[in-house]
User: Fold Tyrosinase copper-binding domain-containing protein from Ficus carica.
Amino acid sequence: MTGIGTSPLAVAAPIDAPDITKCGNVETQGQVLPVDCCPPTSLKIIDFKPPPITKLRVRPAAHKVGKEYIAKYNEALKRMRELPDTDPRSFSQQADIHCAYCNSAYDQTGYPGVELQVHNSWLFFPFHRWYLYFYERILGSLIGDPTFAIPFWNWDHPGGIAMPAMFTSDKNSALYDVNRSIAHQPPFLLDLDYSKSKDAGKIPQFKDQVDENNTIMYRQMVSGAKTQSLFFGGDFRAGEQPENSPGSIEATPHTPIHIWSGNEKNKFGENMGNFYSAGRDPMFYAHHGNVDRMWSIWKSLPGKKRTDITDPDWLNSAFLFYDQNKNLVRVTVADSLDTKRLGYVYEQVDLPWLKSKPKSGTTSKAKKVGISVGVSAATAAESVKGLTPLTNFPIALTKVTTVLVPRPKKGRSKAEKEEEEEILVIEGIDYDRNSVVKFDVYVNDEDEGGPDKSEFAGSFVTVPHNTKNKERTNTKLKLGISELLEDVGADDDESVLVTLVPKDGNVKVGGIKIVFES
Ligand code: C2O
Assistant:
């Protein structure tokens, strides 16, 4: 029931589909860029019914497909681009779906003035699954091939460590987009921990980048994603203010890939680097194909908590999309859970990150703070200069900040750990929604050793998405740290040192605590 206190009107109820007749212009960057991204209206809304499936569509890895497939996708997208802008199936309308659901074109139905937002909460995975579903079905119908399946950008694999060639190699292709990063064209390697402030850094070797990316994937899918709320993101119910907390994959690598892909010469990072414009780049749908694939993979990994949420407020949340026949269709989260029911699966590709556990860098930290390994964080804290007292929060995160955070329990048994995950909560995050924001979180490490170290707990990172509600301060970052604490040998410590390292943008932090969640 997190967040219910944020609005006097809030009741425990699902977020209903928006009333598209009340769609409004969005102000994408303050007053700078008012954009109309509303869909055509329709008087008739039909409820989604799973279509009869004769043959599953198999979504392929973008780097593995042949010429014939690329030509087919190019042709389908060309036809989609040629439809008049007023046609809900047109590429410009498809792109605007993202803008409307992400830049507060809609209020929540029944809650005027309360924004509908599909990021930074448990709506993230299901909304984007539906979005791709209809995009794919429309493309298939435009070429008369109902088995057509969109590709996924396999960025969790060495084969997908650059922008997929189908989107970049032919400037005349419908798959090409000029509003993309110039610096990051292939063969430039994708950094899943990308931040703007890293731009000046040296270019990594292939093997180093692969190793680091694998460690990041391990953290976001395995060690840091052991519960539903860590993976899916915070709950978001009718009447509540949005952006409770992002899920592990949404935060990283989903968001850094957006920023990395957008054109750095554009003030607002278009296309991929800003929510209002992200859907204008065909590569967006391949990026989200892999995000969607991660949902399926997460459920298939061992662990009894790796299941879909059963809360009816999630299951009954609804969205509206136009289908391939221009019908306005109401869909629910419940209907999105099984991709086979929607008629598609992903090509099986190996998961090189599955065993890529990060390594502890504790010795260098010990050297820096002048303690020996094995000394408790509380003792270590005494030798750390400039520790910020927890009582000083809220603070503006303008410099590297280290705090000592008490743990409510210590030395837990294996069974206890399986029952409840230890979660580091960075709360009251207040950030500039117009700009790229990133800060990193380390536990028991002063060296900022990088994402391939066990001490790296994760990052808060957002895509610019100006919205009309700017005063929200309820956003949290939740990081699962049970496995991390074992890896750095802090299981029996009463407290841990948490270091926040600002990377991009302006952000305030309200507080830090450790909680246990099943
Ligand atoms: Cu709706 Cu990748 O964002």
Observations:
- Residues 366 and 373 are 6 Å apart (CA to CA).
